[in-house]
Amino acid sequence: MRVDYFIGIVPPEEYIDRIERFQRKWISQSGVEPHITLKAQGGLTPDKKWIDKVKKICENVSPFHLSLGKPRYFGDNILYLSVYSIDLHTLHQKIVNVISPSDELIKRYFELDDFIPHLTLGKEQFGGNISTGLSKDGLKEMKCAAGEELTPYPDFKVDYIRVYELNIEKRKYETFLDIPLGG
Asked: Which InterPro entries match (predicted)?
């Protein structure tokens, strides 16, 4: 059986609700709650031996602030909110280094030098994708509306990270574990 994990950072609950209401205008189900990916699937193995390594890193990282910003695109098919935080980059590097996925996985999941923190709002429709996609015009509409409906973009304190696990039956990522920062 296939088991997928990834690690993310969750915005404040009231902003999650706001993003989900916003997304529902275009997407019936996104497949995962709004989050900022901290560590993608590569190297997060089903044996879960990596969890203790991640917990050890988190014990030694103080809570930090990050800011969400205006919408941008990856290419022309993924719309996201920008994320600003130097501490986020540092934590990402520490986690990737301790998990030590292959160079191929680092490249596939845009990690380390290719890491661009973001909160995905919508994607163009692709076959087999968990999320329900949009047309290019739908993404353009979503970008225009995001600038009005999702502002002001919040600045918030990150004091834990969330490990997500894919629930195959529901075709959705669900919370597996929250790990506090700073012990």
From this structure: Cyclic_Pdiesterase (IPR009097)
Phi and psi angles of residue 78, each rounded to the nearest 5 degrees, phi first: -135, 120
Q: What are the pLDDT digits (tens) for 102-125?
A: 999 999 999 999 999 999 999 887
**Three-class SS string for the chain?**
CCCCEEEEECCCHHHHHHHHHHHCCCCCCCCCCCCEEEECCCCCCCCCCHHHHHHHHHHCCCCEEEEEEEEEEECCCEEEEEEECHHHHHHHHHHHHHHCCCHHHHHHCCCHHHCCCEEEEEEECCCCCCCCCECHHHHHHHHHHHHHHCCCCCEEEECEEEEEEEECCCCEEEEEEEEECCC
Contact 30, 23 (CB under 8 A): yes
Are residues 99 and 43 in contact, defined by beta-carbon separation less than 8 angstroms?
yes
CB 159 within 8 A of CB 182: yes
Cα–Cα distances in Å, from 135 out to 125, 130, 150?
6, 16, 21
| pTM (two decimals) | 0.89
